[in-house]
C-alpha cells in the first residue's frame, strides 16, 4: 500500500439515519483490506488538512465487485468532517491512507462470537458479514449487540439479521419494540450465557463504553486475548 496519501473520489453520499451518513469512496490507487480494518480520510479546508479515521463498512468482496469503499460517519453539529461531507457532492476529490487496524476475525472460533458496537462502531462488523454467514453455516453462535440513543439513530441492524442474533440497546428511547432493550450495551453480558474459556468478544465504539466493558468482562474471567477492541476517539467530526 502507498505510504503517502493517495487520491480518492467521493462517489455517493447517503443518509443512513437521522445522525449518520454513509460515504461511498472510490480509491484511485490499488487498495486491499481485511474485513474489520479502517481507513483515514484527509480533508483539506482553507489550506489545513484534517484527518479522520473510519471503519470500512462493506466487505472486501463487495469492494472488489463495485470498486467502492463504504464508511459510516456520525454527524456532529459544527464538526469539520460533518460539515464538509454534508455539503460535498459526488465527484469531489479527497485523499486517503490505509488500511489500518487489527480488529479482524480469528482463524479459529472455539466458542461464541459476540460483536459489540455503539453508533458507527458496528460498521467494521458489517464488513465481516460474508465471514459471519460462513461461521453461522457451520453452527457457530454469533451475537451482535448494538447501542444507540434512539431508534431513529439505528444503522445496519437489518444486515446482521440473517447471520446473528441481535440485541439492540436504546439508552433514551421511552417505548421499546420486540428485540429492543433499554440501557447500554454493557448491561447485556449477563444475558448472553458467556463462557470466558471459549467465547471471544469484540468491542468497537467510544472509549468509555469499551473501558467499562473490558472491566466487566475481566471480572467475568475473560483473558485479554479473548477481548478484541478498537476505540473511536472523538475528534470533533
**Ends apart, CA distance between termini:** 26 Å
Shape: globular
Unreliable residue stretches = none
Order of helices and strands: EEEEHEHEEHHEHEEEHE
Q: What is the tally of helical segments?
A: 6
| Beta-strand residue percentage | 35-45%
Strand order of the largest sheet: 4-3-6-1-2-5
Label the structural class. alpha/beta
What oligomeric arrangement do these chains adopt?
Answer: single chain
Number-wise, the strands total 12
User: Which sheet architecture does the biggest sheet show?
Assistant: 6 strands, antiparallel
Query: What is the CA-atom radius of gyration, in angstroms?
Result: 18 Å
Give the averaged pLDDT, no decimals: 93
The percent of residues in helical segments reads 10-25%
How would you describe the overall organization of this protein?
The chain is built from six helices and twelve strands. Strand 11, helix 6 (207-219) and strand 12 form a beta-alpha-beta unit. A six-stranded antiparallel sheet has the order 4-3-6-1-2-5. Strands 10-9-8-7-11-12 form a six-stranded parallel sheet, with helices on both faces. With 237 residues, the protein is an alpha/beta fold.
Amino acid at each position: 500500500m502507498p505510504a503517502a496519501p493517495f487520491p480518492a473520489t467521493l462517489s455517493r453520499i447517503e443518509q443512513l439515519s437521522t445522525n449518520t451518513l454513509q460515504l461511498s469512496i472510490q480509491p484511485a490507487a490499488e487498495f486491499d483490506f481485511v474485513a474489520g480494518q479502517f481507513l483515514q480520510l484527509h480533508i483539506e479546508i482553507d489550506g489545513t488538512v484534517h484527518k479522520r479515521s473510519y471503519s470500512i463498512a462493506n466487505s472486501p468482496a463487495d469492494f472488489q465487485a463495485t470498486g467502492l469503499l463504504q464508511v459510516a460517519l456520525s454527524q456532529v453539529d459544527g464538526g469539520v468532517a460533518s460539515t464538509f461531507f454534508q455539503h460535498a457532492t459526488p465527484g469531489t476529490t479527497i485523499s486517503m491512507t490505509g488500511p489500518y487496524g487489527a480488529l479482524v476475525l480469528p482463524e479459529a472460533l472455539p466458542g461464541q462470537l459476540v460483536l459489540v458496537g455503539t453508533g458507527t462502531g458496528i460498521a467494521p462488523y458489517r464488513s465481516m458479514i460474508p465471514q459471519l454467514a460462513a461461521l453461522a453455516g457451520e453452527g457457530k453462535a454469533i451475537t451482535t449487540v448494538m447501542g444507540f440513543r434512539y431508534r431513529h439513530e439505528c444503522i445496519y441492524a437489518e444486515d446482521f439479521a440473517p447471520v446473528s442474533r441481535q440485541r439492540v440497546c436504546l439508552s433514551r428511547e421511552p417505548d421499546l419494540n420486540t428485540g429492543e432493550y433499554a440501557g447500554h450495551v454493557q448491561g447485556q453480558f449477563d444475558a448472553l450465557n458467556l463462557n470466558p474459556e471459549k467465547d471471544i468478544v469484540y468491542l468497537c465504539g467510544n472509549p468509555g463504553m469499551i473501558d467499562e466493558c473490558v472491566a466487566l468482562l475481566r471480572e467475568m474471567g475473560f483473558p485479554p486475548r479473548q477481548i478484541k477492541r478498537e476505540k473511536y476517539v472523538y475528534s470533533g467530526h
